[in-house]
Amino acid sequence: MSQATVTHLFTTPAMSQPMVAHDSVSALKGEGIEGDRYLLKTGTYSKKPELGRQVTLTQIEIIDMLKDEHGLDVPPELCRRNVVTRGIELAPLVGRQITVGPVRLHVHRINQPCRYLEKMLNQPGLYDAWWDKGGINCEILEGGTISVGDAIVDLGAAEAAD
User: Fold this and answer.
1) In this structure, CATH architecture of domain 5-160
2) pTM for the complete prediction?
3) End-to-end CA distance of the chain
4) CB atoms < 10 A from the CB of 113, how many?
5) DSSP state letters, 93-159
């Protein structure tokens, strides 16, 4: 069984700005990713704050599936998510807690795609193909540094009740 890991990390200072790749990012408890639009309150949904918008994750396997099964090219740097993972199915984690390296997250909900991304990438059909597979939105319960290559661990239902 392979270990679940972080493959890519991204932030962007404001909505509609290009994502910037990093080897590591600083996750601030209860706030967000240092330098990212939602911590800076410059994101599309910043006027509608919610705990689950502090960090977003998506699966490289889903990005690959979009290309292989639907002919949709959404490279990791264009998916608009902070953390790209490999080796863990994210959707079943809603309501649970996970660690990403030393950082503990509470998974609030599935991160649905938007029509804006479909239009921005000129990828007709992306919205429908990515629906319910767009990743997860999380709250940062314990901060720290997330790095490419870090392990991702599902803490299980017992931990999620803490």
Assistant:
1) Beta Barrel (2.40)
2) 0.90
3) 28
4) 21
5) GTTSEEEETTEEEEEEEE----HHHHHHTT-TTHHHHHTT-S-EEEEEEE-EEEETT-BEEE-HHHH
Q: Given the structure tokens 């795609």, which residue do they identify?
A: 113
Phi, then psi, of 17 in degrees rounded to 5:
-85, 150
Q: pLDDT by residue for the chain (162 residues), tens digit each?
A: 579 999 999 999 988 888 999 999 999 999 999 999 988 888 776 677 778 889 999 999 999 999 999 999 999 999 889 999 999 999 999 999 999 999 999 999 999 988 888 898 899 999 999 999 999 999 999 999 999 999 999 998 544 444
Could you count the other beta carbons within 10 Å of the beta carbon of residue 93? 21
Q: Tokens for 12, please give them.
A: 């962007």
